[in-house]
Design brief:
The complex is a heterodimer. In chain A, strand 1 and strand 2 form a beta hairpin. In chain A, 0% of the residues lie in helices and 58% in strands. Chain A has a two-stranded antiparallel sheet. By secondary structure, chain A is an all-beta fold. By secondary structure, chain B is mostly helical. Chain B is built from seven helices and five strands, in the order ββαβαααααββα. In chain B, helix 2 runs antiparallel to helix 3 and helix 3 crosses helix 4. The chains are: A mainly beta, B mainly alpha. Chains A and B meet through strand 1, strand 2 and strand 3 of A and strand 1, helix 3, helix 6, strand 4 and strand 5 of B. Strand 1 of chain A pairs parallel with strand 5 of chain B, so a sheet runs across the interface.
Chain lengths: 33, 179
């Protein structure tokens, strides 16, 4: 399992607690407004 | 790269509301002025609309593009973003989105059917659940290999994360080939 590291808007890293069974590539999360 | 829709305000009214009623942290005129300035510098004239539309219809329209293939999806996605941030049009309004969709080659009758049946509603909810499970509660955000980057980050920060990701993927592929 790969641990997912979360970096907030200030650039601080946190353990997200989430894991992925494979190393994901790139996902971009968006909304239009 | 996968574009993952994350409907920020699924419960907002159909007509949207003015920005002045949007009580979110971090909203500031200075940030907006900065965004407009750097967008103009990079050749993308940008407006900051004074209203926030409900985005469910726009996100559903974009999913029609996804089902037509990557090129159609990227083009439609850019057209929707351009209508809002480039022209200041109300992308919560059906007539605006029908215009954008038809210019991108989609039949208005099919777009209407997608909306009337909420054909992509469950898909949008599933995408949202993926984000929430990863600890994402706002947009924009990016998952780059094992790093989640929250907020609009400087280009260099994103580039460095992608560079690290590419190295990681290369390492994995080399290992898979036996070293």
């Amino acid at each position: 399992m790969t641990d997912i590291v979360k970096t907030d808007g200030a650039g601080h890293e946190h353990a997200s607690g989430a894991t992925a069974p494979v190393t994901p590539r790139i996902l971009v999360f968006f909304d239009y407004a | 790269m996968v574009l993952v829709p994350f409907e920020l305000r699924p419960d907002m009214p159909e007509e949207g509301y003015p920005v002045s009623e949007l009580h979110i942290g971090g909203h500031s005129d200075r940030v907006e002025e900065h965004l407009v300035r750097i967008a103009a510098r990079d050749g993308f004239p940008m407006v900051v609309p004074g209203f926030v539309p409900k985005t469910h219809l726009a996100l559903s329209l974009a999913e029609m593009g996804r089902d037509r293939g990557e090129e159609a999806h990227r083009s439609l996605h850019a057209a929707i973003l351009g209508a809002y941030f480039g022209e200041g049009r109300d992308i919560g309004a059906r007539e605006v989105l029908l215009d954008v969709g038809s210019r991108e080659g989609f039949e208005t009758a099919e777009i209407g059917d997608v909306w009337n049946t909420d054909r992509y509603g469950e898909r949008l909810r599933q995408f949202r659940r993926v984000a929430v499970r990863l600890g994402i509660d706002g947009t924009p955000a990016a998952l780059i290999c094992n790093e989640i980057l929250i907020g609009a980050r400087p280009y260099q920060v994103l580039k460095e994360a992608v560079d690290r990701c590419l190295v990681t993927v290369a390492d994995v592929e080399r290992e898979a080939r036996g070293g």
